[in-house]
Amino acid sequence: MGKKVLITDDTAFMRMTLRNVLEKNGFEVAGEAEDGQQAVDKYEAIKPDLVTMDITMPNMDGITAIKTIMQRDPNAKIVVVSAMGQKALVIEALNSGAKDFIVKPFQPDRIVEALQKVAG
Amino acid sequence: MMGKSEHTEIQMVAFKLENEEFAVDIQQVREVLKMTQVTPLPQSAHYIEGVINLRGEVIPVVDLRKRFEMPLGKRNEQTRIIIVEIKGNNVGLIVDSVTEVLRFSASAIQPPPTRIAGTRTDLIKGVGKLEERLLIILDLEKILTTDEKIVLDDIILGDKVQ
Amino acid sequence: MEEYRDLFLAEARDYLQSMTDHLLDMERDPHDTGHLTEIFRSAHSLKGMAGTMGYELISGLTHAMETLLDSLRSGGVDVEREMVSLLFEAVDLVQIMVDNLDNQEVYRDDVQELEKKLLAWQGKGKAKGAAASDSMEAAPPAAGQPGEAEPAPALDLAYFHETFNDYEKEMLKDVLDKGELIYHIHVWLREGSLLKSVRAYMVLKALEGQCEIIKTVPSMQELDEGLFERDFYFIVVGNPVIEEIRRAIEGIAEIERVEIAPLRDLVLEQETAAVDAAAATAAPEKAQDRPQPSGTEAERPGAELPAQADGRAEPAPVEAKKAGLNAQKRAAEKTVRVETAKLDTLVNLVGELIINRTRVVELGKMAGDELLSASLEQLERITTDLQNAVMTLRMVPIKQVFDRFPRMVRDLSIEKNKGVELVISGEETELDRTIVNQIGDPLVHLLRNAVDHGIETPEERQQRGKNPAGTIVLEAHHEGSHVVVSVSDDGRGIDPEIIKKKALEKGIASRDELAEMTADELIQLIFRSGFSTSSVVTDVSGRGVGMDVVKTGVEALNGTVEVKSEKGSGTHFILRLPLTLAIIRTLMVRAGNEIYAIPIEAIRENIFVEPREIKTINQVRVITLREEVLPLNSLSEALEMGSFEEGREVYPVVVVKAGNKKAGLVVDELLGQQEIVIKSLSSFINEIKGIAGATVLGDGRVTLILDVASLLEDGRVSIGKKGSYH
Asked: Which residues of A touch C253 (CB under 8 A)?
């Protein structure tokens, strides 16, 4: 069985794109979150192997979500999927515990590679 | 302080000496203490009350009444020491009371009036108008780093401005 | 950049000091070429470092020095005093620019002028030296060692010279000496990667904790701005586990390829080449500076071998020298540079701890609980050890000050046409950094005086049957909780009779007083203010310029100074300095409503005086203590905080002494001894006579610390405030 992934993004389009790419490449999409708060809650519930995390989202942003999740589960494996030009935020996300990042718009193989590398 | 745009708000700590109201830019204020024990310093200017211990740092304290050659007031529950930073040094100012923190829009602060006889407008940064109240914004750096004698009448405006 | 700058400053100063030392040695012994090699090495390193930092004036000037030094090495120019002075001038100018890095531009004209002078001197011997240096220039610069592992294809000497400047090359050598390894880590990103700077950042992070990155290509800033195509490389040092590094980097998304190659052999290879070139007195800057065009046959190790044999003139002594240098470096590596502000905070905190301990221990005693007392005793021991340990952190060798004196004495003795040998010993003696920083001026005074007035002219010395060259001995050693520094000369000494005459003229003492003084007491008069003016100096066979300044300076450090002298055979100044300044032992006294701390150093004894013992002479209250007449005043009065309180049954008196002044201070109560941390009064307050600083007591109150020297100095204690007499 493929690794369980929780997708976090506030746009339905991006969530759908990610789901398609991941499912085609042998991952199991175990859940979708529309903001940071949902990601935190669903992480608790689903206990996914991997998380993709958008940065700018309503309610709770991705960085806060990363910090919260890392605090509860230091072994969490989170990959940031950020928009272009968010260098400072990406670095902050990495320093907060995110394992890697990928920039939107992404080539499908890149996100797959990133998740595979992080999953180890 | 005066250079900000019209819409900027400036916060001021307002304090009293006798019946006069003064204000100092909150950026310059480190903290406000209740009156505490002051160790007198020999042979220093008459208005230097002495030194106090502020968390291990030895800080000089100036009695503003004495600085302005005013009669000494009674120290009471209202007496405060305002710790201000002047040229990188912390200095305490003993005042009768600290009334409040006021917000002025930049437009409510006027430069010191220049044509008033007998007033040392060079010691004043500006005048803050708040409804009926007039608060004198002192140039603490000038007042505390000169040895000249300054009397209260030099700096208050009384009825001289409207 | 700031970090590099500090490193540059520290190392530049070391190199400048080394140049000064070896210039002095070279002048003394022109035949020992070892000094020349060292000076050259320092100038060369400095040039490289300055170049790296973009300090064009410093690198230009050091280059000119190097050029002159080079003709010295090739024998084109002889060592002459005038030339050494010129080199000193250059050292000074570099020093000034190093001290004023932000304003180097100001010195451009000076630099240019000096460069001209240096090159003009070099030109004198050019014809002679040209042949030698030309022939050497042809020698290939590098030499390889056979049988070594092949470096990665791209990593050859050409790469090496292109990648590293001289400064970095030096650093790499040090790294190897330390037993650490050097790696070249090359990383390629996948095509079309976005936020490349963050990728680079992730690679950097992956290396964190594994090894130290000493260089990146492109520069850190360019990496940070993403200004690179697809690849970048790092030079790292340490002892990392290569496979772990590889895995960590390959585990990052969008990394296409990683190559890791050791650089050890390459560094050794180029080092041998450089040292050999230097040994053969070729022009080594040619060997090290110029990036070699890549791919020419001459750089391949094999091709170099025959040339290497030619170039290697005297390998043995150079190797020995190298070993010595490496040993020195290893010693230095055991140390860590710490910001002094951090140290001060630590010292302060420990000080506060000690104060509070004192208080806790007192409370414990009152409680009378045995178990508590036992653990308090333990606490007392540990905190004392802690205090001592922390204090040693602030200790630095007095060498830092002594180092500048050989040069100063040399210049002075030339100026005065005197032969003077300065003998220094005990320069490794350690004392508090603050004291080391402040003891320089008094010592300069004493040494100047010794050269200027103590040591006689060579003719005069010969007439007296002395060695025409005088000797000045500067010595330091520990003595209990003090450091004793002495300056002795074998000059003409001080004539008590002349002192007596001058003291009378200057109104320092009356004829009667002088008549009663011993020769030794008379000599101490030179420390009196007003005794030494320049007109006095020449008259009293020399001693006196600013001797009161010396005394004041030493006393400001809670130290003492005394002088011993014998007419005709020399003078001996002895400075006694405390090991540390931050914490002092004091006697706490009450005067009026205030408590003051008096440094124990300044206290001779505490006595109780009855009113009938107090006499008045010339409007001054005095007491007679063991046949000595002491002026007496109340502390409150001396500080202008009150007046002498008449009519008490008994007066507690603290007998204080500073220099040769002694007096009794009447206080209201003696409160006991205490260790206190000295805090400076705010710079907002003008200096107050009689007050050295303040301290915060265990209960949070601020207490002032007396400055006994200044209290006694202007006669406050003996005369008291005008008009305060009844």
From this structure: 79, 100-102, 110, 113-114, 117-118
Q: Which of C205, C251, C253 sits opposite A110 (nearest CB)?
A: C253
Q: Which amino acid is at C677?
A: V
Do B and A touch, 3+ Cβ pairs within 8 Å? The answer is no
Low-confidence residues of chain A, pLDDT below 50?
none
In this predicted structure, what is the pLDDT of residue B86? 87
pLDDT of residue C154: 60
- Is C618 catalytic? The answer is no
Tokens of C40: 């050259």
Each residue's pLDDT tens digit, C378-391: 888 888 888 778 87
Q: Does A46 touch chain C (CB under 8 A)?
A: no
Reported as half-sphere exposure (CB side, CA atoms, 13 A), residue C661 has a value of 23
Residue A79 lies in a domain: yes
Amino acid identity for residue B105 in this structure? S
**Which residues numbered 68-97 in A keep a CB inside 8 Å of some CB on C?**
79, 82, 84, 86-87, 90-91, 94
Q: Is C31 a catalytic residue?
A: no
d(CA C175, CA C173): 5
User: Which range marks the domain in which residue A68 is found?
Assistant: 4-108
- C68: its two tokens: 């002159």
CATH number at residue A47: 3.40.50.2300
The CATH class of the C583-719 domain is mainly beta
**For residue A50, is it within any domain?**
yes
Contact C704 B41 (CB under 8 A): yes
Contact A87 C251 (CB under 8 A): no
Q: pLDDT (tens digit, 9 = 90+) per residue, C333-377?
A: 456 767 777 877 787 788 778 767 777 877 887 888 888 888 888
Fill in the DSSP letter of residue C148. Answer: P
Q: pLDDT at residue C725 above 80? A: no
The pLDDT tens digits for C287-324 are 343 333 333 333 333 333 333 333 333 333 434 344 44
Chain C residues whose CB is inside 8 A of the B141 CB are none
Alpha carbon C161 to chain centroid distance? 35
User: Is CATH 1.20.120.160 the classification given to domain C2-137?
Assistant: yes
C157-314 CATH pick, 2.40.30.110, 2.30.110.10, 1.10.3720.10, 3.30.70.1110: 3.30.70.1110
What is the domain range of residue B120? 9-155
Determine contact: A103 vs chain C, CB below 8 A.
yes
Could you give the maximum distance between any two Cα atoms of chain A, in Å? 36
Q: Which fold has domain C340-394?
A: Helix Hairpins (1.10.287)
As a whole number of Å, the CA-based R_g of chain C is 33
Is it the case that residue B77 has pLDDT exceeding 60? Answer: yes
C449 is known as an active-site residue: yes
